[in-house]
Structure formats: C-alpha cells, structure tokens
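Changelog excerpt: complex records now keep ligands as SMILES alongside chain sequences, and the structure block spans every component. Example after the change:
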Amino acid sequence: MADDRATARAPSGTHDVLWPESTRWEALIARFADQVERAGYGLAHTPIFEDVRVFRRGIGEGSDVVGKEMYEFEDRGGRTLALRPEGTAPMVRAFVQHRPPVPWKAWYATPAFRYERPQAGRYRQHHQLGVEALGPADPDLDVEVVALADGTFRSVGLGDFELKLNSMGDGNCRPAYVERLREYLSAHRDALCPEHAERLDANPLRALDCKRPQCREVTEGAPRLIDHLCDACAAHFARVREGLEALGVPYRLDHRLVRGFDYYTRTTFEFASAALDAAQNGIGGGGRYDGLVEMLGGPPTPGIGFGIGIERLLLACDAEGVFPVDPPPLDAFVVDVTGGGVARDVTARLRAAGLRADRAFDGRSMKAQLKAADRSGARVALLVGADEADSGTVLLKPLRGDGDQHQVPVDGVVEAVRATRPPDGAPSAPVPTRKDLS
Ligand SMILES: [Zn+2]
Ligand SMILES: [Zn+2]
C-alpha cells in the first residue's frame, strides 16, 4: 500500500501546475512570446534530452551543473544522454546542426533538470523562458537582449529587482587577468573559505562570487576584470553601457558577477529580485558566449542569450503582489434537467460562436446543477426544464451582476449570451478564487 501511495506523488523536487495557477503560466508565456516576437525572435523546440557531450563540451565538465547535478542516463541503445540542465547548449547544438542564416534569433519555453537539494524556489524540474541570438558580435545586440529580459520583468509588474552587469572579457584578455587574480588570491589563500582556497588553482574566478564572508572580504580588494579588458572588449562594454543608458535600463556594475559556465565571454548579466531571499533571488540571467558554437563543432559564430526561471519569476511576483491573473470566466453554464440533449447542442453552439460555455453531466438534479453553475464562475446560467424543452427555449438567469432572468429561443441564445458580456474595458464580474473552489 505504501508503495502505491508513493507512485501517486510527483517525484521529489518536482511540482504540478494546475488550473487556475496555470492560467498565470499561460499569460506569462503569451506575454513573453508577444514581446520577443515583436523583436524578431521565433519559437524553437529542441528535445529535452541530448547527447551528454553537448553539455560536457558546452557548459564544461568542471561546473557543478554538469559534474554534480545533471540527469545523465544510458538509453536502451547504449547512448549516454542527459536531460537538459539549461536552455542554451541545446539551442546552439540545433544551430550547428541546421545552420540557419544569421542573424538567427530564437526563443524557447522549456523545462530544465538539475539534481539539486529540493527547497523553496529550487526544483529538480524547473522551467525557463529564454532567447538566443546568433551571428552578430555587435554590442547593440547585447543591449537588445538585456532590454528584452528587463522588459519581461517589467511587463508583469515587477519593479523591485536589480540588473547586475559585468564583462567576462575574452580569450585575448581574460587569461592574463585570471593569472593576476590567482597571484592576488594566492597571497591571501589562508583567508579564503576552504572550498575556494582548494579550488584556487583550478578556477580562481569562482572565489569572486562566493557568498561566504571570508571570500567576500578577500575579493573586495582583488583586481577587477573590467579594469583589465583589452581595447576591443573595453570598447564593446562601453557601447553596451551606453545603449542601456540610452534605453533607460538601469543596471549596476558588479565585478563579482562571473557566471558558472565556461562558455561566457564579454557581456554577462543577472537579475536579482530584492523581494526574494538572498540565496534564491536570481530570477534570470545570461550573457555572450562567442566561443560556444565552435565548441559544439560549428563555424566561429558569436552569440548571446538569457534564461528566465518561470517559478522564480512567479515567486517574485507573489512577493511583490503583482501579476495576479484571473482565469477568464465562463460566459454561460447550461443546466439541463431534460436528459442533457439541449445542453449538448447549446454548449456546442455557444463554443462554435467563440463563447466560453460548460455544462453539467450525469443527469444530476436541478439543485446540484445550479450549484455547479455557480461554482463554475459563469456569468449566466441557461436553464432547461420541461417547459423550455417543449417550447425550444432556455431560461437565461444572470448569476453575477445585474439583469433579470428571461426566456430566450434556442436559435437566439448566442446573441442573448453575448449581450450579457460587459462592454470592452469594463472590469469583469469577480470570478471564484482557488479558495472558493476548494
Ligand atoms: Zn569561498
Ligand atoms: Zn578582451
């Protein structure tokens, strides 16, 4: 018995999204799609699993995501596959495979999988919205991409968040900087946290974004990458900053911002919600990855993108009290106590006319059907008793707002229901909340 109960639960670290919460997801994805499609991005779907080498090469073996958190498995044909832990590497793999003309601008909405310790705002399957833009090295593209992410947050009403911006340099200037940083940190090795004292030789950059006070204190005085960019990287970064300022996108330079994946170059950015707990406040981020296409076997092609975590974004919305999406109410609920034939035909007629209509099933009593009509949130009930069935009419009974009940011929039911809709722009009648429904 215990086993049966276990199989009837979602796996640890995953969650279901059911109506009416799911209407927020629909609204968010629709809003995101509208915004990025206006900027020329088209939807791309890629498989949720890939050859594991896509992630090993793209993200890097040394990262936690690949080394510790990836869902890796062998299929029945002996191939080693992995569930995607993030959105970018699969999109770049698809680009390398299909070679669409550049600039190639694509967006996605996808689950991502990481074997992490489950906690609030951290899931083993979470969901991301993102874009990737491949081809141009132009810093104005960086500005476009960062502004789209910023615009996504603002479009749902978020305001209490910060955009952190940095440049990771490139293969020309970063190695010399990393050496300089390693020298500096080596001189302070004993003051670093144990993890980063140990990893200093492998990757000194990691100490920069460590949250532990020891590392923070040491890195406060560390050399900063933006002070050691080559001329080309410095010019690129200056143009990005100029563009963000021109578009009124506020940002803060953050020299500690070094993203964990090997593929990032130059512009890198992260959005943090001030309304969420510091440990889980990252609501989105991204950056340029000019070497990734080559790493995955394609021709040298610059690229930039971002990913936004849907669950985190919605948590931030809850924390700020914004983006409450009401499910659209039903226009009509048909209550038929004459066998259900009229309910079947009238709901079909209403739906075909673009109205939202539902009905009761199983020949329940008038009282039970009326209760169901009320709980459905419908604006009107259409009642069918023996008299109505005989005369080819329905009794239109308003459930919300004003209006008297009146008899309507079945042939005129679409117009009659439509006439009860509030004028465009008027607030619709309140619909039941999740609490009312439970
Ligand atoms: Zn540390
Ligand atoms: Zn450089």
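The chain has a mean pLDDT of 92. The radius of gyration is 28 Å.
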